[in-house]
Amino acid sequence: MKLKMLALACASSFIVGCATQPASSVNPIHAAELSTPYTLKTGGEIPERQQNLSISHATLAFSFDFDKEILFGDTTLTLQAPSPQQEISVDLDTRFAIESVWLNGTKLPEQQFSNPEGELIVSPNSDVAFPATLRVVYSGHPRTPIRAPWDGGVMWEETPDGHPWLATAVQGEGCDLFWPCIDQPYGEPATTELLITVPNPLVAASNGVLIDTQEKGNDRTFHWKTKSMHNTYGIALNIAPYEKLTQNFTSIYGNTYPLTYYHLPENEDKAKALFAELPEMITFFERMIGPYPFADEKVGIVQTPHLGMEHQTINAYGNEYRKDDAGYDWLMQHEFAHEWFGNQLTNDNWDHMWLHEGFGTYMQPLYAQYLHGNEAYFVKLNAQRKGLANAHPIVSNELMSEEDVYEKGPAGDIYAKGSWVIHTLRGLMGDEDFFRSVTELVYGRVDPKPGNFKPIFANTQDFIDIVNKNSTHNLDWFFDVYLFSAALPKLDVARTENDVTFTWKTEGDLPFPMPLEVSINGKVTTLDMQNQTSLTVSQYDVVIADPNSKVLRYEQRFEDYKAWQEEQAEMKKKQTEE
């Protein structure tokens, strides 16, 4: 079953004027067939025309032709800058035909704007004073992801009963795949309104609070509004004939806010079971980290045709209701973790993406420990430990795009290695100092309460400064080895008939005074390890270094296991080719 809609509703209470019309009736900047390299990156080098810009408000209006897979957009951005500028720009995929551009309510002639590579440049006859409103009316077939959510774009799928099922997921390539934006971490609009027009019986689930739904003929426009900064790649469209589960939740801080799950009508019992997991998850995060950051909006989950993504207050979920051995849905828990690590706390440069993904990944073993104790905790940590590459430092201290991180940098190590770095830091600092440091990183203060904090930007050095403030000793050496070096520290163990000697070896001979627990016949001793350290033992004593797995270090057994896995994969590939 296909549904078609060609124009946005022109409801005056939502937006001034009709948002758009079919591209064939105007003389737009024509759309390109493929996205440019500029569009397909997010973050990295900042164009000169955007370096001083910020977005105080964004109004994003959308409608769709589901038959032809066309998105019609009408975006108005309120831009701020410290001083007037001759030119300004925002980012928008060249796949879209730009039908008109308006500056402060005046339609610009075509010679005053251009979009050759995906940077929409506005060059009016006089300097732009701020605040300024920039309106862009556009349409086209947006990029369709090959393998969402790892590959970004707009998905035009169908539900099992044949209705349209549209979803966006653009973390890797950025917000400019479907709306004009500043495609940088700092480009978060302070507030956003989304006006999404769809035909009945479709429902549009998005960020923030649902303000109103207006009916016009067979169409209805869902008016969503955020109350805080929202992550640029976290702005999301989700359209299907959804049903909704909702309940009010009272947190450990005493505030009450709504929990909402938009799901397809199929598998209602499984949807209810998943929804029932949310209260305990929220309580865990609030106990361990601090208050849910967006309580004045909602806790939102929406079923999607892709696996999942941390879309702020409307987290995408497509894990098909699969439980893991810890008794919870790891995918929903991981994406929900990003409300704290990614949405409340946002890295100010993709080079520091481990703050999102390392902490987000560590929340799975930590939740398993919270539910079931240490055995479940270490089962999950061990699973994460097996795949570390250690080919690049987790942090380069350079301006990075998201593509740089995944294709030229640490890639998957920002997840699992980041998680293990956090585990090791926790053991080194102790729970009280560690969790105080994490809370301060996330909220910018150690005493967060509902209403006394806002989303913040931070980077690795911010975290190091916080850790050093909360530690009895300076821990720069820890981060030098684990974050700014690629290789793991190696523990050399030399044993004779009379003693055993332990020595830390690091890349570049960096200092690494990591305390080391050693078990001798079950009795555990902690070695200071400021220098090489020896213990007296007999040839019959059982000696185990780091018996409680507190320290991330090089271990040959994991390298042997990876080599075996690679051999098996190569054998399987040859068998398939034969």
Q: Tell me the name of the CATH homologous superfamily of the largest domain.
A: tricorn interacting facor f3 domain
**Uncertain stretches:** 1-27
CATH domain fold name of the largest domain: Immunoglobulin-like
Q: Give me the number of helical elements.
A: 11
Please tell me what the overall shape is.
globular
* Residue-averaged pLDDT: 93
| Spatial strand arrangement across the major sheet | 5-4-8-2-1-11-14-13
Quantity of strands, as a count: 28
Taking the alpha carbons of the first and last residues, their distance comes to: 42 Å
Radius of gyration (CA) equals: 26 Å
Structural overview:
It is found in: Cytoplasm. GO terms for molecular function: alanyl aminopeptidase activity; metallopeptidase activity; zinc ion binding. Keywords: Aminopeptidase, Cytoplasm, Hydrolase, Metal-binding, Metalloprotease, Protease, Signal, Zinc. InterPro entries: Aminopeptidase_N-like_N, Aminopeptidase_N-like_N_sf, M1_LTA4H, Peptidase_M1, Peptidase_M1_dom, Peptidase_M4/M1_CTD_sf. Its EC number is 3.4.11.2. By secondary structure, this protein is of the alpha+beta class. It has 3 domains: 240 residues, Immunoglobulin-like, CATH 2.60.40.1730; 138 residues, Neutral Protease Domain 2 (Neutral Protease, domain 2, Orthogonal Bundle), CATH 1.10.390; 67 residues, Immunoglobulin-like (Sandwich), CATH 2.60.40. Helix content is 23%, strand content 27%. The chain is built from 11 helices and 28 strands. An 8-stranded mixed beta sheet has the order 5-4-8-2-1-11-14-13, with no helix packed on it. Strand 25 and strand 26 form a beta hairpin. Helix 4 crosses helix 7, helix 7 crosses helix 8 and helix 8 packs antiparallel against helix 9. The longest helix has 22 residues. The protein starts with 53 loop residues before the first strand and ends with a helix.
